[in-house]
Amino acid sequence: METLIQPKVLKGFRDFLPEAEIKRTLLQEKLTKAFRAYGFVPIDTPVLEYSEILLRKSNGETEKQVFRFEDNGKRDVALRFDLTVPFARFVAEHKDELYFPFKRYHIAKVWRGEKPQAGRYREFVQCDFDMVGSDSACADFEILSLMKSALAAIGVEDITIRMSHRGVFNAFLKTIGATDKSEDVLRIVDKLAKIGEEEVSRQLTELLDGDSEKSGKVLEFIKGADSFDATLDVMARLAKADTDEDAAKAVNRLKEVRKMMEAAGIESTFVLDPSITRGLDYYTGIVYETFLNKLPSIGSVCSGGRYDNLAGLYMKDRIPGVGSSIGLDRLIAGLDQLEAAEARGSFLDAEIFCMDDNLSVHYQKVAGQLREAGIACEVFPDAKKIGQQYTVAEKKGIPFGIIIKAEDAENNVLTLKNLKTREQFEKISVSKCIEKLKNN
After folding, report:
1. Which neighbouring-strand residues pair with 401?
2. Whose CA is closest to 394, among 413, 421, 428?
3. What are the start-end ranges of the H helices in 224-282?
4. For the chain, how many helices (H) and strands (E)?
5. Is it true that the peptide bond before 101 is cis, omega within 30 degrees of 0?
6. How far is the C-alpha of 403 from the C-alpha of 2, rounded, in Å?
7. 25 Cβ contact partners less than 8 Å away, ≥ 6 residues apart
8. Which of the residues 10, 134, 182, 432 has an alpha carbon 20 to 30 A from that of 384?
9. Phi and psi (nearest 5°) for 326?
10. Please, are residues 371 and 420 in contact by the beta-carbon 8 Å criterion?
């Protein structure tokens, strides 16, 4: 007898049973509606790219996380680790077919070979939305506004979006003579929430050739102050924005965006936090991360920034861009911990129970009438015991059951039953049934 293969999945990968996948699908649908309300359109890109495309502008840490291999054609390929780099390649390849500014959203899987932990997996879904072709404060603000709106659309409103500007930080590093080590400084600072101030100080001092004074100034910069305006004043002073043109430009961009937030009445959601730097190399302007106020330990659930030079890796023309990404699986993990995610076992509004196999044609007729009226329903296929049919319907989370016996079919009536409260509406017409289902 042939030996059976044990069914199992790779570490960091998961199967999704209907309830979990329905939860994810419903969130994606709500996010899609929010993206479209801001004028964003969908695109798609291959899951496999040439390694040189994905890794041309990355650090060694990123390369360690990429699933990379040689395919049967001896090509060096890799699974995409985010949706931003493939988008940059997409823009460069299709620039003559696109219009600018171009606003896209992309909801798809990405892969990273990092250590699995709570809310972090090796295969996960990202929901990206980007605007390319504009370097305006309006574009920066629109992405930030959409972050808040999209999360609100899925019921996530108790959040804080922490933001900063890489341009101000880079200008500050210039004042302390650390420009040549900017990327390494940024990566260390980006770990502040994970490793703490003391360890950040130690790593910075080591990086800056043992200069504790310089590392102290970096810590002073990233601490900021107790309000948006006060923090911006600290950043501007330490970056010498009064004399440095680049620093002044970056500070003014933050001021412009802040005014738009205040005009829209959403400023309370946003905090200026100079320690937010985003570890990836391609960010050049405003950067941001989003945290659940009741569960900050899970990390950022929506992050991104401005990446004016990213598309320049693949084309000579400079096309500015800004965007953000929602880590859907990490967000769901957080919502599950907070017991805030909707749980459903199906998309059905009603189950037509099979009381008699001889009535199958009539059941299908009624089901067709219900679906035509916008009611999602199904017919139980076999005349099993009613208790067994109830059990299946309850496992699916179907709210209503419809019972039609032989005499009911003759009189074109039915019994509608609320499967949770057990309340029944007996001998009602199909049209009355539709009315009650729509009201509920």
Report:
1. 351, 417
2. 421
3. 228-238, 245-264
4. 16, 16
5. yes
6. 47
7. none
8. 432
9. -95, 120
10. no
CB atoms within 10 A of CB 145: 17
- DSSP class of residue 32 equals H
- What radius of gyration, in Å, describes the C-alpha atoms of the chain? 27
pLDDT of residue 190: 79
Q: Tens of pLDDT along 237-253?
A: 999 999 999 999 999 99
For 53, the token pair is 């495309």
157 close to 61: Cβ distance less than 8 angstroms: no
pLDDT, tens digit, 9 for 90 and up, residues 55-94: 876 656 678 889 999 999 999 999 999 998 899 999 999 9
Q: Which residue has the tokens 């949770």?
A: 420
Contact by Cβ (8 Å): 170, 179: yes
In this structure, the number of other CB atoms found within 10 A of the CB of residue 357 comes to 10
| CA 183 vs CA 100, 186, 374: distances in Å | 30, 5, 55
Lowest mean pLDDT among 6-15, 187-196, 412-421: 187-196
Which DSSP letter does residue 235 get? H
Nearest alpha-carbon partner for 251 in 277, 233, 265? 233
Single-letter amino acid, residue 164: S
Q: By the 8 A CB rule, do 150 and 126 touch?
A: no
pLDDT tens across 1-34, in order?
A: 678 999 999 999 999 999 999 999 999 999 999 9
165 contacts 285 by C-beta, under 8 angstroms: yes
- pTM for the whole structure: 0.89
Distances from the Cα of 137 to the Cα of 105, 144, 151, 224, 285, angstroms: 20, 11, 22, 22, 11
At 1 the pLDDT is 63
